[in-house]
Amino acid sequence: MIHLKKVGVFATLSAVLLVSACSGNSGGDSKGEAKSGKKTVVVSVMTKDRFLESAVQKFEESHPDVHIEVKEYKAAKPAAEGGMSMEALSLADVEKYVQSVTTQVISGKGADIILMNEMPQDKFVAKKLLVNMYDLMAKDNSFDRNALYANILKASQDGDGLYVMPLSYSLDLVRGDTELLKKANVPVDKNKSWSWMEFKEIAKKLKQQGYDGFGNLSPTELLWDYIEDNYSQLVGQGKPGFDSDLFRNMMKEIKLMYDEGMLNEGLSGFSSTSGTGKSAFLLAGIYSPEEALKMPSNMDYFPKPSASGKKSGVPFKFNYSLGINSKSDVQQEAWAFIKFLLSSDMQASPNLMGFPMNKGAVDQKFNEVLQKFKNGTLNEQTPRNGGVSAATPPNMLPDGETAKKRIEDIKKMITEADVRRSSDMKVLMIAMEEFKSFMSGQKSAEEVSNLIQNRVKIYLNE
Prior knowledge:
- There is one protein chain.
- Helices cover 42% and strands 14% of the residues.
- α9 (219-229) packs antiparallel against α11 (245-259), α15 runs antiparallel to α16 (400-416) and α17 (425-439) packs antiparallel against α18.
- The longest helix is centred in the C-terminal third of the chain and has 17 residues, at 359-375.
- The protein has a domain at 9-168 and 316-359: Periplasmic binding protein-like II (D-Maltodextrin-Binding Protein, domain 2), CATH 3.40.190.
- The chain has helices spanning 9-20, 50-62, 91-106, 121-126, 133-138, 150-155, 178-183, 196-208, 219-229, 231-235, 245-259, 289-293, 331-341, 344-347, 359-375, 400-416, 425-439, 445-460; strands at 39-45, 66-72, 113-115, 165-171, 173-177, 212-214, 279-283, 299-303, 314-324, 355-356, 382-384, 387-389, 417-420.
- The relative contact order is 0.17.
- With 462 residues, it is of the alpha/beta class.
- α2 links the parallel β1 and β2 (66-72).
- Residues 377-401 are annotated as: Disordered.
- Pfam families: SBP_bac_1.
């Protein structure tokens, strides 16, 4: 699995690229044709990964009349021992992939199944380019919808329809140093939502004690969060709202926090080895049951501050999500493959990154992780998609009681996850590109908001 471990927008994009860089050439320039009398289902992904390759092999063994053809935009370079390299994809790669696939699907072509992580989902749904999977579920008596998390499904809807099926997801949270907060005498309730303006007041108190608020947050990342929190007002129904006081005030709030020193860009204040340092918080969503335990006892998960502070529940992001092309001639076969990917066996695969949609697979993975923890093998180096993850230092692991409690807390968070964080990557890139000139003082908030408004309007009307 490939993560982008760079500061700034690349750190934020690590979650976005998590799957595209290791799940799915042309990106799906044509639908499948009959192959030796079989029906062919074409799947468009950024780069292939072991989870998908294994799934294709197993599915074809049990469905001899169907061939799954995976079209990848950019092949991963071979690594040692026959694995795949951990080479990160650039933003240009992702943007070209999105543009290529979007053009194909809008023109009535494209693959039968599309990796939707970076796709402009709103545009696809508005143009009726995707199949409503609830319709397919209703006709399939063999599909057990109760095996999946109902809250995740509901939050993944567009209107009353489910046009994109999440296979896995991550929880969008932050890590907080509870010992540091206690030492600084700055209480923060981990069970209560809060806004960035409330964080600003906390950061002031921390600064008085010689501490920083966040250890790895750039202005563009913060803008990303602000836009996602207000996405329906800024981009809803294809009508951009960037030329507004709402957006201009967002930019001003962000700039003020950095100008006043409430936020600092970079990683200088946070210790990744001990979990302690000068910074109270670190952007770090939960991408897997194993990762949730690789954090010392003095750290805990907190809600990520929002631009409004009004949202309840736990926000999540898709790690792996698929849509079915409404122009596909093999919709039933495409649904059969997606249904197979949601089975408990496939969902429990160690190659599927993120939390599975299948409830039984989540329990199984947590049980496996807890057993590793008890056996003392959780911090061993483990192979992953051809690479090797670094061993976790002992001081980065919690004590036994904390491990058990953390698992129960995260299971509860999963059942409460009801805020899907999503947006059109192209819109975000336009906003962040123009926003830099405001942060540097080269242009006013009015000038930048106007530029973003015009560029986004042109893009949405394409």
